Amino acid sequence: MRFDVITLFPELFAPFLASGVTRRAYESKQVEVVLWNPRDFADGNYRRVDDRPFGGGPGMVMTAEPLSACLDAALAARGAAAPVILFSPIGETLRHEAVERWSAGEGAVLVCGRYEGIDQRFIDARVTHQLSIGDFVLSGGEIPAMALLDAVARLQPGVLGDADSHVQDSFNPALDGLLDCPHYTRPEQWMGETVPPVLLSGHHVQIERWRRDQRLAITQQKRPDLIEAARAAGRLSPADEKALQKKL
Ligand code: SAH
């Protein structure tokens, strides 16, 4: 799949694309990332990409024309129509289900806003989806773009070291959308604390039951809405319900 990223700060992406477990996915183009700078599509000596807001007020607004020309170039390079995602606090908050959908598609063009935002006429004419990464405001859409790219890349087959290790992560439908259980590693004793004995027992059935119970208890405590969703989808077994009763 291919993601074209429209950003005034393409240099922010270099270390991100070259680091960590997802690096191979980007380098092999399993998840291809192509960077575009709207400034390269702006006219004039100063190559301006922003201007003062009509109606007054603080800050600057990204102008429509360089963004639109940049998007045309990205779409032409792709050779086919593609979804155009704008990162914005007013967008739909990104969740696991949407990440799964994007990670099974052909990719998209990602538009990173800066300043106070983007001329609304560009958004109305060219943007097909708006995504937020939470109820807070960043200075630009680059971190949200990296968040989506990273979440999508780690779901691609073979990207995480262990086959399918993302399946045990929080929100995964394979584990009924529950939160993750606690993890422990060596040493067995740290600052006087031991690890839960069941994890040292070698008894795989009991270990799985313990992990499931932990997931249920933690999800019940922190995100009861996810327990309700799993229950409504018929994903909780009688043993799960018993475990939930115990923890109450
Ligand atoms: N005036 C806007 C914020 C602009 S912040 C408002 O109040 O809604 C500048 C850019 O950062 C935005 O255009 C957007 O691309 C990005 N951004 C900021 N917060 C974000 C968030 N929570 N999710 C996604 N993108 C965000």
Sheet with the most strands, sense and barrel status: 5 strands, parallel
Read across the widest sheet, the strand sequence of neighbours is 2-1-6-5-7
Number of strands: 7
Morphology call: elongated
CA distance, first residue to last residue:
45 Å
**Full CATH superfamily name of the largest domain:** SPOUT methyltransferase, trefoil knot domain
Residue runs with pLDDT of under 50 for 5 or more positions: none
Radius of gyration: 22 Å
Query: CATH topology of the largest domain, which one?
Result: Alpha/beta knot
What are the secondary-structure elements, in order, as H or E? Answer: EHHEEEHEHEHEHHHH
Percent range of helical residues: 25-40%
Our count of domains comes out at: 2
Strand content: 5-15%
Structure keywords:
248 residues; alpha/beta; Alpha/beta knot; Trp Operon Repressor, Chain A; 2 domains; five-stranded parallel sheet; two-stranded antiparallel sheet; 7 strands; binds S-adenosyl-L-homocysteine
If you had to describe this structure to a student in words, what would you say it looks like?
The chain has 248 residues and is α/β, with parallel strands linked by helices. It has two domains: 2-153, 3-Layer(aba) Sandwich (Alpha/beta knot); 170-247, Trp Operon Repressor, Chain A. The protein is 36% helix and 13% strand. The chain has nine helices and seven strands. It has helices at 13-17, 23-27, 64-78, 96-103, 120-126, 142-153, 204-222, 224-232, 238-247; strands spanning 2-6, 32-36, 50-51, 61-62, 84-93, 107-111, 129-132. It has a five-stranded parallel sheet. Helix 4 links the parallel strand 5 (84-93) and strand 6. Helix 3 runs parallel beside helix 5 (120-126). The radius of gyration is 22 Å and the shape is elongated. The N and C termini lie far apart (45 Å). The model has no long low-confidence stretch (mean pLDDT 96). S-adenosyl-L-homocysteine binds next to strand 5.
